[in-house]
Amino acid sequence: MAIDDVFIKAFRAHRQEGDLFHHDSRLAHELFQTSTIGALMEGVYDGEVTYGELAKHGDFGLGTFNALDGEMIAFDGTFYQMKADGKAYPVAPSAKTPFAVVMRFDPTVKVLWEELTDWGHFQQAVDKAVPSKNIFYAVKVQAIFDYIKVRTVPRQEKPYPPLVEVAKHQPAYVHEGMRGTLVGFRFPDYAQGVNVPGYHVHFLNGERTAGGHVLDFRMRDATVEIDVTSDLHMEVPDCGDFLDADLGKDQTEAIERAEKER
Ligand SMILES: [Zn+2]
Asked: Which listed CATH number (3.40.1010.10, 3.40.50.970, 3.30.1330.80, 3.50.50.60) goes with 3-260?
């Protein structure tokens, strides 16, 4: 059976039972987001939300840090900061974030996939299987990565350049033959400006010492868990640069270049 069919079967089983959303424990699935990807694209790299505050809304997710000081990944209750050197560091509760998405991960479907699959095919297979492209999906993958290419963002000084400029000089790292975990989300196309449309995924290696924002991979022996949700709780800054940022423009192309270019 192809990976596409395995996912389709997994989602269909849940859809028939009508329990895709686990209505009995709705709060468990609420996505909490601080600020918007559009503001980050515009160089709003300082926020007032601390990681201590963020942890009250979830222990699974991704984001960044004030001054754009690296990529964040969180799962199993621990937050990590992956800095420009590609290494992972613990996060102090007092650290602040200008953009992050977290939740309490409680997967709806779980799929085991031993055969080799790549980033492009993985996205296509999940896309084919999901019951709707208009709701939200959190994805967790534990696998052996024959190859994975990640990037991190380097800490910025004021005046902050837009993210598309930072992305031109982002350090990229390739890891081979490494066990690790992916944490990410699939947002609908209509989320443009609010979050990254399509997939946005971060990686941490098995030793929890290195990782980053995922650009490409080939993986095998994968355990894939997906949490389906229709709840999004977003809080935007009520002070600072966010208030004056020009957030009305179409940033589709800039997001594509800053977040997805391999
Ligand atoms: Zn990222």
From this structure: 3.30.1330.80
